[in-house]
Specification:
Helix content is 26%, strand content 16%.
Amino acid sequence: MIKRVLIVSLVVFIIALFIFWLITGGWTAAARTARSLSNPLELIFGTSTSGSFIKLPWQPGELTRGPDIGDYADEADARNMASGDSDQYSDTPPAPTQYAGNSSPHAGKVFISENAATENAASREFIQLTASENNTAPIIVTNWALQSAVSGTRAIIPPAAPLFVLGAINSVQPIYLEPGASAFVTTAASPVGASFRENICSGYLNELQTFIPELSTECPAPPETLPMNADNLRIYGSSCFDYLNALPQCHAPASLPAELSSACRSYISNTTSYNGCTNTYRSRVPFALPSFRVYLTLRTELWANSHDVIHLLDEQGRIVDTLRY
């Protein structure tokens, strides 16, 4: 009985489907639908011209052309604004995509005076900019650009910390090159996390990181702020002065002799380090040096290792100076 009911139900269902098929157009509708379907192989492997296809797990996504090196420079500098280096770029306008070809009013006032553009690593690749000693006023170079006339690669010169503080987030300002002042513009990121102006204590940083070229080692002599007189001999002890007189400039000792007094140890800890030196001598004239360390925070080289033509451009894209090698 159940079998008979199932058979009758199946027959009725088939008849209903046939009637519905006739009502919706029969063979004509089926042919029209078939013509509208895409090739299943095209759907799977992505060759369909309709723009929609199924991606298999091993198939890559759409390939897009990446930004040029100038865009990477803008992005890296913007990221570094938050970290304290090119730390700096929320207000920086985009670099010119090409130079205007005409001479800048600053031509003859700032020069590419030295370079290591042919080095084969971003950390060793740098260009030195120098302001003419004949200038009558400082010249701002932040937001200027360095651009290869051969490849079109370019980078914007960022701001720098006027007084770098080790271990802190440094505020930055536009770089003003005074007459005779210079800036080493290095392609890589800063060894200490920031572009900065050098000062008489910067040599202490050489012991912490590698700088190319090396920072000046003309730091204040350790006993400079501790005159040897009767009072200081009683407070610090004679062995303290012997130790200070033998201590090299720009050197922060990792350990101290046991015979030194606690007062002597405290003095050495507070003065013979980068931050200790800057805290001690920041009011001294001169303290800031006429040189900057500027970092573009890029991981790859900007300039060709064999031959290139590099333009220094002002904010309007006009040529200030040109390096050919």
